[in-house]
Structure to design on (327 residues):
């Protein structure tokens, strides 16, 4: 497994907060920064990876979505579109796409990224072999013991164990409704059964949290929400404002059709029964969210955040890494 001076990994943070500057700053500070490929065009991903590598000589990882085209309830999606029409903003066309996985994997390999991580599923054996042939490590995001075993058997080099406290989308392969294990429970469960390097994710907000997960079997701790207020992050102004305004988090499908944890706002409260349909609902609501974000409206955008978001600080990424690492 890649050797880090500080046992801190920056969560990929797709959809805006991920930037080359953030990834480079985390890696320069001794951790491992990630560039999120999610939602980027392949050419844009290549540009971001090259920018990140120009900013640091330290290793940087890239995260890819692994999506399977599964049947969805088209009638329920259409009904949800009708429900959202009351928001009075433009809606998109719901459809499936695999986020250009093959093309983005080719970019990651071509740019010789040392770590490729995956979420929402596990790649094919050919994809795993391609990563290894390029001399890179494959880290698989998992949320259950069953997923951990499958990833181990599929050739993963490390497992990112996402507990219930984590912000943003659940990394589960099936998008099933809970129950979700806490980060500590998940690390203990997997560590007792699967002999692999483990990266604990969810609720990591300070050095005490890091020490707890390392004590029960994790090699590294992954933090996401802790970096959202860093100046290097691309977090939007209304999202930053919401992170400093208190409140509580909950898991919702309202914005994307996939379970994700965010700060509770009006949109979440008024649309509790969104259908299970990702990325169809994501594409449906994308224009609505973009317009609300541009208007500074915190009530109609996804405010992804983990349960410990109140402890996030507006500090440079290097200082966040040092604090998490106990320096």
């Amino acid at each position: 497994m890649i050797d880090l001076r500080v046992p801190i990994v920056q969560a990929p943070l797709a959809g805006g907060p991920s930037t080359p500057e953030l990834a480079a700053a985390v890696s320069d500070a001794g951790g491992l920064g990630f560039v999120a490929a999610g939602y980027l065009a392949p050419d844009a991903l290549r540009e971001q990876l090259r920018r990140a590598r120009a900013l640091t000589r330290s290793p940087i990882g890239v995260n890819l979505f692994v999506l399977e085209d599964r049947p969805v309830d088209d009638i329920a999606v259409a009904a949800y579109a009708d429900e959202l029409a009351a928001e009075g903003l433009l809606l998109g066309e719901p459809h499936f796409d695999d986020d250009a996985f093959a093309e983005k994997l080719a970019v990651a390999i071509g740019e010789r990224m040392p770590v490729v991580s995956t979420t929402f599923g596990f790649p094919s054996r050919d994809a795993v072999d391609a990563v290894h042939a390029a001399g890179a490590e494959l880290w698989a995001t998992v949320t259950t013991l069953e997923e951990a075993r499958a990833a181990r058997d599929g050739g993963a080099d490390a497992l990112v164990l996402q507990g219930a406290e984590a912000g943003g989308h659940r990394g589960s392969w099936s998008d099933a409704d809970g129950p979700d294990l806490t980060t500590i429970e998940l690390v203990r469960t997997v560590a007792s059964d699967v002999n692999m390097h483990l990266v604990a994710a969810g609720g990591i907000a300070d050095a005490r949290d890091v020490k707890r997960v390392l004590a029960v079997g994790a090699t590294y701790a992954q933090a996401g929400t802790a970096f959202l207020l860093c100046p290097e992050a691309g977090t939007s102004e209304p999202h930053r404002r919401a992170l400093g305004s208190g409140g509580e988090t909950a898991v919702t499908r309202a914005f994307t059709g996939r379970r994700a944890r965010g700060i509770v706002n009006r949109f979440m409260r008024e649309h509790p029964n969104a259908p299970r349909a990702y990325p169809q609902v994501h594409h449906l609501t994308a224009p609505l969210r973009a317009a609300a974000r541009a208007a500074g409206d915190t009530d109609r955008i996804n405010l992804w955040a983990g349960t410990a978001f109140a402890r996030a600080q507006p500090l440079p990424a290097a200082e966040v890494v040092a604090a998490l690492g106990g320096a």
Observations:
- The CA atoms of residues 25 and 317 lie 6 Å apart.
